[in-house]
Specification:
heterodimer; A: 115 residues; mainly beta; 6-stranded mixed beta sheet; 4-stranded antiparallel beta sheet; B: 113 residues; 7-stranded mixed beta sheet; 0% helix
Chain lengths: 115, 113
């Protein structure tokens, strides 16, 4: 079965410092990996995805993610964090289309960026 | 652009009552999903649909029912509400291709007392 794990419940970072949110995955076959962000009282918003190709994926709001097959990781990164990046971040892996293309989410990582 | 619209935004139910959470999308997406979000648990899939007239169970379907009579609408029915169903419910949709991201509504916050 497809699954992802987010080992950190919360990440604290000062504004202007680099931000990393960790995610590891377990899949059979090719991984289809996604990052979503959730702001308070809102639904999830898509940030970026990895399907195939370059291991460094660029997404919305200056975020990028690095796919590492040997470490089965897909960490989300931002070179310089903003206070407005404070939110709940979810890593997800998508099932193959033959099983409905369902998303399996991690538990989420709360990011707190302090001024 | 409306995207995915969920109603109501908030609701309080008494134990044993029933209700329907509404979800509609205007993007002509074939795939639609219902999730529940509990603190520290991520999102769990309740039901999903790959097209009008086709629905299937997700990870946590007990106590819920769905129907999909049109491409646009995917209502979620709670029968005999229980305190364990207190949660935030999200509806999402996506095109038929697995590579495309899901689009989420803003959720319905439901309390069962």
């Amino acid at each position: 079965a497809q699954s992802v794990a987010q080992p950190e419940d919360q990440v604290n970072v000062a504004e202007g410092n680099p931000l990393t949110v960790k995610c590891t995955y377990s899949v059979s076959g090719n991984p289809y990996l996604f990052w979503y962000v959730q702001y308070p009282n809102r639904g999830l918003q898509f940030l970026l995805k990895y399907i195939t190709g370059d291991n460094l994926v660029k997404g919305s709001y200056g975020f990028e993610a690095e796919f590492n097959k040997s470490q089965t990781s897909f960490h989300l990164k931002k070179p310089s964090a903003l206070v407005s990046d404070s939110a709940l971040y979810f890593c997800a892996v998508r099932d193959p289309p033959t099983t409905g293309g369902k998303l399996q989410f991690g538990a989420g990582t709360q990011v707190v960026v302090t001024p | 652009n409306a995207g995915v619209t969920q109603t109501p935004k908030f609701r309080i139910l008494k134990i044993g009552q029933s209700m329907t959470l509404q979800c509609t999308q205007d993007m002509n997406h074939n795939y639609m999903y219902w999730y529940r979000q509990d603190p520290g648990m991520g999102l769990k899939l309740i039901y999903y649909s790959v097209g009008a007239g086709i629905t299937d169970k997700g990870e946590v379907p007990n106590g819920y029912n769905v129907s999909r009579s049109t491409t646009e609408d995917f209502p979620l029915r709670l029968e005999l509400a229980a305190p364990s169903q207190t949660s935030v419910y999200f509806c999402a949709s996506s095109p038929g291709q697995v590579l495309q991201p899901q689009h989420f509504g803003d959720g319905t916050r439901l309390s069962i007392l």
